[in-house]
Amino acid sequence: NEFDDLIPYFKHVKAIVTFGQTAPKLVRAAEKAGLDVIESVDTLDDAVVKAYAHSTDGDVILLSPACASWDQFKTFEERGDIFIQAVHKLI
């Protein structure tokens, strides 16, 4: 799995929420790492809502694209804008 290089870093992660066509590959790497909270959703909006639901005071919710998202967004700027909008809906 091309995401196995991420496994050592999952020890610093409370939860992972994946979406998009490469989500299953990220899920497999997270499972190998023994991560307890692994969620897959359909959209970035849904990912932000799920991440927020798993967070507690002081946690960081990070958009950390591991690959291109041409299946859902025209540009990386659009993806970033949608992330910001989703966060603003929650605060």
UniProtKB/TrEMBL annotation:
<dbReference type="GO" id="GO:0051301">
    <property type="term" value="P:cell division"/>
</dbReference>
<dbReference type="InterPro" id="IPR005762">
    <property type="entry name" value="MurD"/>
</dbReference>
<dbReference type="GO" id="GO:0008764">
    <property type="term" value="F:UDP-N-acetylmuramoylalanine-D-glutamate ligase activity"/>
</dbReference>
<dbReference type="GO" id="GO:0071555">
    <property type="term" value="P:cell wall organization"/>
</dbReference>
<keyword id="KW-0436">Ligase</keyword>
<keyword id="KW-0067">ATP-binding</keyword>
<keyword id="KW-0961">Cell wall biogenesis/degradation</keyword>
<keyword id="KW-0133">Cell shape</keyword>
<dbReference type="GO" id="GO:0005524">
    <property type="term" value="F:ATP binding"/>
</dbReference>
<protein>
    <submittedName>
        <fullName>UDP-N-acetylmuramoylalanine-D-glutamate ligase</fullName>
    </submittedName>
</protein>
<keyword id="KW-0573">Peptidoglycan synthesis</keyword>
<dbReference type="GO" id="GO:0008360">
    <property type="term" value="P:regulation of cell shape"/>
</dbReference>
<keyword id="KW-0963">Cytoplasm</keyword>
<dbReference type="GO" id="GO:0005737">
    <property type="term" value="C:cytoplasm"/>
</dbReference>
<keyword id="KW-0547">Nucleotide-binding</keyword>
<dbReference type="GO" id="GO:0009252">
    <property type="term" value="P:peptidoglycan biosynthetic process"/>
</dbReference>
<dbReference type="InterPro" id="IPR036615">
    <property type="entry name" value="Mur_ligase_C_dom_sf"/>
</dbReference>
